[in-house]
Amino acid sequence: MVSCNSQRDIHIPTASQSQNDYICEWLRHKEDLLRILLEMEAAPSPRNCTKCGKDGVYRCTDCMHQFLFCTDCCRILHEAHPFHRIQQWTGEFFEDSALHMVSKVISIERYKMDTRAGGMGMVEEEWEDIDEVLLHLRPPANSKYLTIIDVTGVHFVRVQPCQCLDADSYHRQLLFQAKLCTSTFEKPSTAFTFAVLDDFLRENLECGTSGMNYYSKLRRVTSNVFPHLVPNRYRELLRLARQWRVLKLLKWNGFQDETERSSPGDLALFCAACPQPGINVDPDVDLDELVWKYTRTVVMDGNFKAEHMHEKRPDDQVWLMDGRGFMVAHPPYQEYLQATPHITEKSACHNHRAISQANVSRGKLSATGIGATACARHGCFYPHSVVDFQKGERQLNMDYSLSNALGYNMTGIKNVLCFYDINCSYMKNLRKRVNNSPFLHIPSSLQIVPGIGIWHVHGHKQECYARYAPLFLRGSGWVDGEIIETLWSILNIVSASTRGMSSPHRQELLDFQMNDSNFMKMIRILDSLSRKLKAARASVAMARDTFTKLDEAVSSENHQVWSIQEESALGGRVRDVSVMDIFEIQLKKAPTVRAVELELLEAPSQRGTRQGAASWITRGLGIEESEITLAITRKDSSKYPSETKRLAMARRADRLAVDRSRFITDSQIYLAPLHQGTDADDYSSGMTDVAHHMSAGDDVVSGEEDSEGSMDEAGDAVPLKMTKIAPLPLPSNFGIERCRAAGADELVEMELKLRIGQANDALHGLRIALADKAVAFRGVVRQATSYSMRTRAWQMVNSIDSSVRQQAAIYKRCREAMIALGADTDTLTRFQQLHKSHMAVHTAAFSQNAHDHRSSNLPWFWCMDIPRTTSSKNWLTEFYHIHWLRAKAVKDRWEEEEDLLVSEFHWTMNFFKFRAKKWNKKCVSFKAAGLHGAACYAA
Asked: What CA–CA distance (Å, rounded) separates 398 from 525?
């Protein structure tokens, strides 16, 4: 790696210099160039009009030289340039102005056209090949010239520098007087205008335009017919753009020279609304009084679009701002990677993408992506926390990112909410990994509460929801924990163009993009907080009202017990996250399809049975369920569904057709003896179609209880008119006799076990839907006081009815399959037939203060999968318990959100006041040092 921090590192220019040689030469002049840029912010002395000598108050940023003009001269000299941008001197600094403010008027003259015969005639000439370069593309002959690249194209300009004895060097004259950045310092031949460098940075930020594409555009602007004849200065553009980015960041952050001590992330902007003691939070505030309010909320994630290829000369690099932006410093990070072994930890949860990506092949990539930490509430990247992945998203990479993020302006903060896709496994040994590494530091007093974003948590095991979902994290407010996913789309604008860059160039470009992302968040933060606060205040009222209605139906004893349970769980979750399981139904459940499939897969297969038969049967059961669900969804749709809804259903049907075709093809492997000499009609005869199972669900759906306490029907089911769907080639569709004759007894046993698990799932879903319906009637339908509220309430009930029909139809199909597979009497007694009366659930069962209605016995399936000593009433009590806890969690999170948003308004204003004071101090110090340009910029 080339450092170029001393004079001995600077080499004398030669004829065959590399890009890094030129950058090393530039580093020697960096402080001088920065001073010149800052001096240009001040007015010249004396401050007279260049044209007439009067008081000069205006200067044009688009003109070649930054001459001062009085009002009249500024207006006259811009007659032919009405779209130039001007600035006005305020007495302390130059402020953006406009030509219309100096009474600039565009005069449109009317010109007459000579239309006499021959006046507009065209001379026909033969086409001739151009053997030489066009005149306007030829550089001036026999004279010194400078190739200048501007937004208007590439120009060859004769330049006559000042020859006085005390004149500045040539490149300083061009920079200070003509706003031109030269590509070299010794005998420069190419220069770029400030305007073209600014324009390239803007296009790169907003459009992701690469340097190659941008310079190709400039060549077309110069000559649309012969762009290939325009001189190629692409490499110079890339080099100057790197230097320009660094100068801009140094200027924006008030760095006058390199004598000021730099620190990690000092050229990066951070969130204005997050609590930062000493910056936007008064250091005298007692942070222990309301720990949840002064909590940092962070989110981590990886992005696999930001790849980076191996470099040809990795040791020949020039780093301009290593570690001063968002990417971590290169040498310490590489040292950490070499000293830290990668330990693969098996996850007890599902196989998520972040885990599977940890072992991807690197191939030709030195970095397979990047990992970052951001503010989870406002979406700002943390400075000096973005790391490269060497082999997927490994824990050691994210440990380094989190450690650096939690060390940024965290003085006094004692609580952190950390969201990550795989926190259920990542956080288990985090403290152990930190303590074992000399490169990582997270204070032991800092309490880290793990969470999983709301989109990802549903892909985990069921218990992960209550343990890690944002809804159950005290102090999180109302966040989804997924905001970093929206930031990747911004960063991916330039990710493709960084793939083949050098490591320093890639780092600088990504830093600049992330800094701009944080800047855009910062300038819009007040509007964002205003919208959120308005929504939060409305939601708080609704959440309180909902919880109050639920709480009124709870006995004082249960209220006290449940409140103690909630407080104990929230307080002890850091030590043992399993205490959060109180937010899930605790009653023992019957085995599910997944549990049965896992049991079959883990058990040794019998002789003659092909591997994978259990998974194949499970696929068939899933296809049947999807076909029943789709048929009911189609029926429940309005008479004239929207085109979008019809398209969605058509796509589902198409996917099901593909799955069905593959399943039937695979059946030739597992049911070969049954297929010999048999067509589809032989095993489908006598089999009911999907419409029959769907209508079975309609027969058992009923509405809310009437005035006498019984449930009324929500409406008679309309028979579904649809074509029959041929049954799948499953053992239950062939019949037990044919399966035994073909030696498929084990397949029959497998399907019977899986059907029992499927029936358990369907009955559990049925109980959940009916309980939801009872709660909806009690808390929504009965409380509706307007037409719109009643409409929304009944839409909710109808949606639940659709779920009831689906679960009932799936259960009926399971029971028919059990009979076909020869289920014994005990099994059929346990799984009884469903009737319409079984769907009549009394809402009184959900009232904790109501008397036990002994005459209203609940159907058999309410207590079939719980211990015999547990009554069906206890199942409903447990369900109501969960509803109460979750409704309270919703209320608490919205109340926190409202409180946090009000505080964030104050923190944001304090942040900008802090920055203003900081710049005022810089202004005073610059004036005292005689740095007038820097003082004007700071003002």
From this structure: 28
Kindly state the tokens that stand for 875: 């199942």
**Strand 58-60 and strand 86-89: pairing?**
antiparallel
Give the span between the Cα atoms of 124 and 122, in whole angstroms. Answer: 6
Q: What is the pLDDT of residues 716-744, one digit of tens each?
A: 333 333 445 678 888 888 888 888 888 78
d(C-alpha 68, C-alpha 60), whole Å: 8
Q: In terms of DSSP bridges, do strands 190-193 and 146-150 run parallel, antiparallel, or are they unpaired?
A: parallel
Cα–Cα separations (whole angstroms), residue 562 to 148, 517, 551, 894 = 76, 44, 11, 20
Asked whether the whole model's pTM tops 0.85, one would answer no
Beta-sheet strand order (sheet of 387-389): 387-389, 369-375, 296-303, 415-419, 447-451
**Higher pLDDT pick, 743 / 572:** 572
Do residues 98 and 190 touch, judged by C-beta distance below 8 A?
no
Residue partners of 223: CB distance under 8 A and separation at least 6 = 134, 136, 137, 153, 229, 230
Give Cβ neighbours of residue 881 (< 8 Å, ≥ 6 apart): 558, 562
Hey, what amino acid is at 343?
I
Gap between the Cα atoms of 901 and 529, Å rounded? 6
Whether residue 671 contacts residue 730, with contact meaning beta carbons closer than 8 Å, is answered with: no
Question: What's the average model confidence in pLDDT over 242-270?
Answer: 83
- The secondary structure element, H or E, covering residue 25 is helix 19-39
* Distance, CA of 38 to CA of 48 (rounded, Å): 20
Rounded Cα distance, 323 and 333, in Å = 10
